[in-house]
Structures are given as C-alpha cells and as structure tokens.
Design goal:
The chain has about 230 residues and is α/β, with parallel strands linked by helices. It has 5 helices and 14 strands. The protein is elongated.
Length: about 230
C-alpha cells in the first residue's frame, strides 16, 4: 500500500460506543486537520476526551437525548439512520470518514459487552472494501493494524511484547516478518489458523508484510508507537 502524498492525505478518528476505551490515546493523535466521526454513543466518549466532533452518525438508540441535542446545537453534522438498517454504526461512520476524504483512519472503542459486535467490528475494519485505507484501531487497550496484500506495517515496542497475526477473509499469503521470535518468511497463514497467535518481539522494532490477503496485527500492550508505511507516528 503506497503512502498518500502530503497534499492529499487526511486522517480521521472514528469513536465507537460501548464501554469507554482508553480514548486518551486517540486524543493524542488529534491534530488540526484530523476529522473526528462519532458512531452513535461514541460521541459521549469523544466529548469526554475533549475531541472536537465533526460528524455524529448512527441510529442514536444508545445516546442520551440531551447529548444528541448538544451536538446539534454546537454545529456537529448529525446523520441519522433507522434502527432497522443493513450496517452497524461503525461501518456507517467509516463510510462517512472516507466520503469526507480520509485515507488514514484510527478506530477507537471498547468491547461493548457483546461478543458478536466485537467480531463484527474486527471483520469490518479488515474489509477488502477498505484496502485503500490505512486502517488502525485502539480496541480497549489493544492496538490493531490492518495489513492488506502488497502492504506492511512497522512498529516499535519492547522485547517480550506480544504480537498476534490473524488472517482475515481468507488465506494471508506471502507473510514475512522481522524482529519477531517466530519468524515467517513468505509463508501462508491459512484462514482459521492460530499459528500467528502470541508471537513475541525480540527487538525494539518489527515489521510484518504480506503479498496477498488480509492480516490483523494485534498488539495487546498500551503503547501507541505504530506506523504503517509512515502513516501513524
């Protein structure tokens, strides 16, 4: 995945609802030009972190009415959807961020108490439809990067940090790593395998790249020192 040019690049933070995440990590990412999109009650978390919300998106079945009114009164662009809809609030929010020109997105959220929603969130951020987007997530305290075919991610941490590689939507082929205790050299991680679970950093920097398919690179630690081809620093 090639890095967008300086002039055309735009970053976005998408804040989900559910249990409050460590949103301070996302707040540290906010810069003047960062677009902030709240998915339903994610607006509550975004406001509590002092993020300036640009869009609030969803069916708003889980946000206090007074908070929604506050958003509308403050000029936040609110996009309402029916409760009976074909996409989750997160997916709708991602689409708004991309519609508004974002090519690097960081999703922030907690587990929300529903395992089905957690699975759905993982699958949607790894969707092939977003292969042109530099996609990262802070899910509870875990840091997640999505790597699509032809791309890679470089990250720093401490020796002993755990790294898990999960193939999504099929086989991940041509997986190569550096800086990990159990190296992969242009190998295939078939769909459903657990081979990539609980790898370990042996240095302060590691890389993961793939030739085709999609990988989730999951780091359970609290650090936010990741970048994909220079996209997040």
């Amino acid at each position: 995945m090639s890095k967008p040019t300086e002039s055309s690049s735009r970053s976005a933070i998408v804040v989900m609802g559910g249990v409050a995440p460590d949103i301070g990590l996302a707040a540290a990412l906010e810069r003047d030009e960062v677009l902030v999109v709240a998915a339903d009650s994610g607006a509550v978390h975004a406001l509590s972190a002092g993020l300036a919300i640009d869009f609030a998106v969803g069916d708003f079945d889980s946000i206090p009415p007074e908070v929604l009114q506050k958003l509308e009164n403050s000029g936040v662009r609110v996009e309402r959807h029916p409760v009976a809809k074909d996409a989750t609030d997160l997916e709708l929010a991602l689409d708004v961020a991309i519609r508004e020109g974002a090519d690097a997105i960081t999703v922030v959220g907690g587990h929300g108490g529903r395992v089905d929603q957690s699975f759905a969130n993982a699958f949607v951020i790894a969707s092939p439809a977003y292969a042109h987007i530099s996609m990262h997530a802070i899910l509870d305290s875990a840091l997640v990067s999505v790597v699509h075919g032809g791309g890679g991610v470089t990250f720093v941490g401490a020796p002993g940090d755990v790294i898990t590689l999960l193939p999504m939507h099929g086989d991940a082929k041509g997986v190569s790593t550096t800086g990990l205790e159990y190296p992969l050299r242009a190998e295939t991680l078939p769909a459903g395998t657990t081979r990539g679970v609980s790898n370990v950093l042996i240095d302060h920097e590691a890389t993961v790249s793939i030739e085709s398919g999609t990988l989730l690179v999951v780091r359970p630690g609290p650090e936010l020192l990741s970048r994909e081809n220079g996209a997040i620093e």
